[in-house]
Structure formats: structure tokens, C-alpha cells
Amino acid sequence: xxxxxxxxQAIVCASSKGLGLACAQQLAxxxxxxxxxxxxxxxxxxxxxxxxxxxxxxxxxxATDITTPEGRAKVLELCPxxxxxxxxAGGPKPGDFRDWSRDDWVAAVDANMITPxxxxxxxxxxxxxxxFGRIVNITSASVKQPIESLGLSNGARAGLTGFVSGLARxxxxxxxxxxxxxxxxxxxxRLTQNAVVRAKASGQTVEQIQNARKAxxxxxxxxxxxxxxxACAFLCSAGAGFMTGQNLVLDGGTYPGTL
Length: 259
Description:
Elements: E1 9-12, H1 18-29, E2 33-38, H2 41-55, E3 59-63, H3 69-78, E4 84-87, H4 102-130, E5 133-138, H5 151-171, E6 176-183, H6 189-202, H7 206-215, H8 225-235, E7 247-250
Pfam family, one: adh_short_C2
Organism: Zwartia hollandica
Protein name: SDR family oxidoreductase
């Protein structure tokens, strides 16, 4: 299936590994030129080089902190007129809300709500002028089904979701869409790291923790990052112009609701 985005330009945040990397890989396979960014330069460049070798498209990189104004300025200087924007940031720390300070909340909202909004603000008018734009925010299945220990993430990502819902309907007439991808458990480094923490706290093995988690997923497995990347590429496609303001859950059937 030709997604109709060959030659387009994309910014993909936090794309040196995990779900962000999967999105960058799949967009490149569709012929999209990609600006990849993350904080760690070495892993980022290694990932980009692998994509260049596989696809032959133009893949550029910048090692920066996208949650800072300086970081966003550097990215937008390299790619001021993206056709596709994929926002992504690591989730805030888990825990009990009684232990979180105001600074913890500000950091969570800044990374997982304000940063995507600032990137959208900087790029959406150009998309409107060119009559093409696809914005995908990687959020979390916790937006639909809050996770008790992830209150910082639940709150910040829900705030972004509410903002996007209103804006998406204002700009879709210009062939500019905004949608959110809500991942459940995917086989990424972050999932493994969380399992290690839980294993140490509970006295169980990492394998036991992961098997118990898989048992809660109707698909009885974790998602593969490539599956997530393919979903992202579809939302960025020319044929997805009639879909906007949506929250697509990719969780193997875990979310029990009908809506």
C-alpha cells in the first residue's frame, strides 16, 4: 500500500530507541525524509545510520533536549517546515502522589503536555499554508485507563489529549490532522526497566513479572515496536486526512471499554 507521503519531511522526537525509533524507521521505509532527535548522540546516530543504510532516504539527527526552549529552537532551525510531526517524550516517574513535589508536576506537564503543544504551535501554520500536515502524539493507554502508580503521566497526558481534541477540529479543513497513539505494553527497554524495578521490590524474577503482565493482555504478548511504527505511518499517510482528534489504543485488547 502506497501511503502517499514519499518525499515528505518529518520530525520524530525521542527516536533513538523504542517506539519513537519504530516510527522513524517506518516513515523512512515509506520514503519520508526524517529528522531524528534524542538526548544521547551516540545511540541516535547509530539508529539513524541503520535507517539510512536500509532505506536510502535523507535522515538527519540532532542530540538535544526537546523539552527545553533551546532544544526546540535547534530542531526547528534544522527543520522549520515539517509535513509530519511525531511528538514523544519519556514518561514521568511512577510512585505515590503524596511523594511528588510541585517541581515533579511541573516537569511532567512540561515534558508531556507543554512540549508537544509548543511544537505544534511552531509548525501547524506552515502545514495549513501548504495544505498538508500530519501530527501524531505518542501518549499512553493510561489516558483511557489510568494506572494508579502513574499519576504524573495520567494527568499530563490527559491535559494534552484535551487540548488536541479542540485544535484538531479547527484545522482539519486544511488537510492537517492531529491524532494520538496510546501504547499499552510494548517490548521496549522501558518495559524491561520497569520490570526490573518491580522484580527487586517484590522479590520475584524479571521473567515472572513480565509473564504476569502478559497474562493481563488478551493478546497474551507484548506489542512489537514495528507494529506501533506501522500504525503511526498510517496516521501520517495521505489517505488518513479524514481521521482527526482520535485516540487510538494499541494494547492487545487490554482496555475493556467500548469507546
